[in-house]
Design goal:
Layout lengths: L6 E3 L6 E3 L16 H6 L3 H15 L7 E2 H11 L5 H13 L3 E5 L2 E3 L9 E4 L2
Antiparallel strand pairs: 1-2, 3-6, 4-5, 4-6
Helix pairs in contact: 2-4
Bound molecules: zinc ion.
């Protein structure tokens, strides 16, 4: 990744958006990484998910790592409409806000690089 280009965070899925030539004139207006994020939006369920994820993470000792499975299995009963993708998007938005961090193989990783086999923990 070329780190000299400006970046921002997609407000829907939390992925990093890197500056592109086609956005030269309206980079300040770019808020979504893709058409699907633009059409999807963030609804009440998404905001609720963020709250639930944080309370789940904060219910355990500081520094405890959670797998995606820990998190999605916890929500399967409580918040039906949420899919693993919804959960991942909520996690990325929280990571972009500096509330939590992603780890891959024990090392911190960026929200964009995090995959389904990552872990998350509350940011210290
Ligand atoms: Zn996005």
């Amino acid at each position: 990744m070329n780190t000299s280009l400006p970046t921002k965070t997609c407000i829907i899925c939390g992925r990093t958006i890197t500056w592109r030539k086609k956005w030269e004139r309206d980079w300040h207006n770019v808020r979504y990484c893709s058409k699907s994020c633009r059409s999807r939006g963030v609804n009440d369920t998404d905001r609720q998910l963020e709250t639930l994820v944080l309370s789940l993470l904060n219910s355990q000792p500081a520094g405890k790592q959670f797998t995606m499975n820990d998190i999605t299995s916890d929500f399967r009963s409580g918040l039906k409409p949420a899919t693993p993708d919804d959960v991942m998007h909520a996690l990325r938005r929280l990571a972009s806000d500096g509330r939590l961090e992603f780890l891959m193989n024990g090392r911190p990783t960026s929200p964009s690089a995090a995959k389904g086999n990552c872990q998350v923990r509350v940011k210290q």
